[in-house]
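lol ok so funny story. i was supposed to be doing the assay writeup but got distracted and ended up predicting the structure for this chain instead. priorities right. anyway since i did it might as well share w the group, maybe its usefull for someone
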Amino acid sequence: MTVRTRVAPSPTGDPHVGTAYIALFNLAFARQHGGQFILRIEDTDQTRSTAESEKTILDSMRWLGLEWDEGPDVGGPHGPYRQSERKDSYRDFAMRLVEEGKAFHCYRTAEELDVLREARRAEGKHTALKQSDLQLPEDEIEQRRAAGAPYVVRMKVPEEGVCVIGDMLRGTIELDWSQVDCQILLKSDGMPTYHLANVVDDHLMEITHVIRGEEWISSAPKHKLLYEYFGWEMPQLCHMPLLRNPDKSKLSKRKNPTSILYYQRMGYLPEALLNYLGRMGWSMPDESEKFSRQQMFENFDIQRVSLGGPIFDQEKLSWLNGLWLREDLTPEQFAQAYQQWALNPEYLMQIVPLIQQRVEKLSDVAPLAGFLLSGMLDLEASDFDYKGLDLEQTRRVLQFASWLLDTESQWHKDRLFAQLKQLAGAMELKIRDFLYPLFIAIAGTNQTVSVMDSMAILGPDMTRARLRHALNIVGGPSKKEGKRWDKEFRAMQAQFED
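and the output, tada:
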């Protein structure tokens, strides 16, 4: 048997360090066994998936040194490697299950589903819906079908009993079927859900080992049942521990920068970041902290993975990156690395048009553009003092702007200005006053180039990180304030949509 592993990112946002973490362990396991590593794009969410996001993911993975044997850009014998290009086959498999009585058409509306779940909740039951809950009278089904009502295809699941799952790290896991709902396999738009597409693709691509995050443990019964329904052999499962923030919460962009692009923009070496991800729950036999990708592959044993949630600590990453900078680069290589990071023509040509009209001599460039060549800025709370805003208004502007930009996918200056101007109006602030804290957070001063241009150049990850940094300096909301502000912000968002 040839070992075949895969990683399957969704192109709906920035490339996540968690994706790189899982990809690294899949690649290491494949290389340890002389096998193959596949990259598959799971773009069934057609409303959020973008070609730009896909390209960014592929570029970021390659920057880290994660290379795949088969994928959408390199091809392979099991293509296509984008789920959107395999759409018709998923429908055929779903209809096969319907014909065999293992799945059914469900015409229930969203409102009806809410009522059903609430009824189960009132009875003290788990809200997972079963076929007995969802079943409509035959005449009602015929009536809705004749009227062309939308429907989904759901799989049938047992209403009671225990599903036994084997896991390479955790041994035997028992999960109660009563907590597993009749999973949707095919959405009303004809696109498959993750669960159907994942199982079909893993089978057709001959994946032998599925190494994924532990958040998928609860979905394992559905996947095992689908393999049984189709009569296919199930790959071996291995659920990796989730990356954690220093406070032990799940790694999230609201507490920690999670995008690979952020760490690239901060000036971390790809070798150091990959090294750090390799230390997340795993260790070398000699416990050495600094090791190359090849050293990891040569010594890899997945049984050395610890199930304790590994802490993604930026200070520790910075320390490790410092070792790589000092120990692995000659002065010439260091200079070259810096030039490629900050002084590359592509990046400089974004900056030059903004500053050229403001300088009288070349020595003016560094003071004027320094914030565009830096990481986190050295700020103090007094830097945000401004006659147009009191402290609470400043805190609210930074928090609301941060929440707004956390969800912004169209990252260009005109769009950013339109969105922030709308927010300023909803907060009943003049745009000049509203933007002052953003100037300080992004550039450290308001005597500089346009803050919109600056945010566009810095990109979403660095921009968001600087806003969070500024908010920490002036004082983020208390738990009580946070709930109140969140409610106010959501009400403003609703106004935007109206």
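The radius of gyration is 26 Å. The first helix runs from residue 17 to 32.
back to the writeup now i swear
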